[in-house]
């Protein structure tokens, strides 16, 4: 291990500024999850399944919007791409606390679509500012910074919701997120290298090959029998289909089996983290002291920060899949907690691997995808994580309502472990069936 890597990284002024701005921009939404849960459960007097449904709708919106937002950053630039988010954050989350549950679901979906894309923007910019082995340390630093925020955000959200008002808390989240968006627009972190010609990778060569295939395809199609291709018509249905197929393929030439594995890690991580999140709130709430939820989040996130510090100083690279599987197994013992203190202590082993999982996965995406498509790829990576979150929160909430708070942790760890094993099996079958060249 070489902890001096952190000192070297923080000496780079653009990276240091980016990490600070990223922390500020993440803070509002770090409190939003607990605020939404307690708003639905306490203020609206509904169960954890309903709270999980709202969380799921938000994350579905994020999953739908993230690739589109990432692509907009790639095509029109960061500043223009963030303007809709700044407006939506202020308007939607100032309105959502005052509406019925049905309208809350609608606003949560729209708010998710236009959520400030802090995660993908920061990770995309770090992928530009740091190269090679530096990326592991840079992404670890970002994960550590994120954990520091999540040590404070949920605790503050719980205090505001229980001691003041969840309505005031959600309104503050929206206005603060809008201010954070303006800060990102002002800072305008780089999302492309200053010399893009030096950023050409194997992915670019694949895109060129795909473009050649598109150009050649019509000629090949026309040589086929007319009754099968419709080539006798200027725009035969088969020709239109082929053009569409090649066009879609050309837009996703960056996507590969290796990238698919990373996205599976993101789904599993989102499922595991959201289920654990709901389980922590439900367990502490069941103990009769909801304001103590911050104690557990501090222990959980502090462990993640420590794990991130250690991982970022390592020279050896670890598989995101193996890290996620270990984290899933270590999450299940949280079901045996008897009070807030024991829950906080049992959250530490799993927390130690949280930041390393996310750092390893982000580093892998940055290595696999060319930077001219990295914004879109990071958007899909974020969508994969939020898809897992959308699945984990309501399912864990339903299990908690029917069985008990402890069931959320067993469900979270078991589901993430099954996903890892299924992905590894699918990858093994793919490699066996792939033709040898």
From TrEMBL:
This is MFS transporter. It comes from Arthrobacter zhangbolii. The chain crosses the membrane at residues 20-41, 47-68, 80-97, 103-126, 138-161, 167-187, 252-273, 293-314, 321-338, 344-366, 378-400, 406-424. GO terms for molecular function: transmembrane transporter activity. Signal peptide: none annotated. It is a multi-pass membrane protein. Residues 242-437 form the Major facilitator superfamily (MFS) profile domain. GO terms for cellular component: plasma membrane. PANTHER family: MAJOR FACILITATOR SUPERFAMILY (MFS) PROFILE DOMAIN-CONTAINING PROTEIN, PTHR23542. Keywords: Membrane, Transmembrane, Transmembrane helix. It holds the Pfam family MFS_1.
């Amino acid at each position: 291990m070489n902890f001096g890597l952190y000192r070297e990284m923080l000496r780079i002024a653009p990276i240091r500024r980016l990490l600070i701005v990223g922390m500020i921009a993440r803070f509002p939404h770090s409190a939003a999850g607990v605020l939404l849960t307690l708003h639905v459960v306490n203020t609206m007097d509904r169960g954890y399944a309903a709270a999980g449904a709202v969380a799921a709708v938000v994350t579905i919106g994020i999953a739908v919007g993230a690739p589109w937002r990432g692509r907009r950053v790639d095509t029109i630039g960061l500043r223009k791409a963030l303007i809709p988010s700044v407006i939506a954050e202020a308007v939607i989350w100032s309105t959502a606390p005052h509406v019925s549950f049905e309208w809350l679901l609608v606003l949560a979906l729209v708010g998710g679509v236009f959520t400030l894309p802090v995660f993908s923007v920061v990770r995309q910019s770090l992928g530009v500012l740091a190269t090679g082995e530096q990326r592991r340390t840079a992404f670890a630093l970002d994960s550590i910074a994120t954990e520091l925020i999540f040590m404070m955000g949920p605790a503050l959200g719980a205090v505001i919701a229980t001691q003041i008002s969840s309505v005031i808390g959600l309104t503050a989240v929206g206005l603060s997120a809008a201010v954070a968006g303006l800060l990102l627009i002002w800072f305008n972190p780089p999302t492309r290298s200053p010399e893009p010609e030096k950023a050409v990778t194997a992915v670019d060569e694949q895109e060129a090959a795909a473009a050649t295939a598109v150009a050649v395809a019509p000629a090949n199609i026309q040589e086929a029998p007319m009754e099968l291709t419709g080539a006798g018509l200027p725009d035969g249905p088969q020709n239109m289909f082929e053009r569409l197929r090649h066009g879609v393929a050309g837009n996703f030439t960056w996507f590969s089996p290796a990238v698919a594995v990373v996205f599976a890690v993101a789904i599993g991580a989102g499922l595991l983290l959201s289920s654990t999140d709901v389980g922590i709130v439900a367990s502490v709430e069941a103990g009769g002291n909801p304001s103590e939820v911050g104690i557990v989040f501090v222990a959980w996130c502090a462990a993640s920060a420590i794990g991130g510090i250690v991982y970022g100083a390592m020279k050896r690279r670890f598989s995101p899949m193996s890290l996620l599987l270990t984290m899933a197994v270590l999450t299940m013992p949280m079901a045996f907690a008897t009070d807030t203190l024991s829950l906080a202590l049992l959250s530490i082993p799993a927390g130690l691997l949280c930041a390393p999982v996310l750092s390893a996965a982000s580093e892998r995406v940055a290595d696999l995808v060319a930077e001219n498509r990295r914004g879109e790829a990071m958007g899909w990576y974020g969508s994969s994580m939020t898809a897992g979150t959308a699945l984990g929160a309501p399912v864990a909430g339903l299990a908690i309502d029917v069985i008990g708070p402890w069931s959320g942790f067993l469900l979270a760890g078991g589901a993430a472990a099954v996903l890892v094993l299924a992905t590894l099996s699918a990858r093994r079958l793919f490699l066996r069936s792939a033709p040898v060249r």
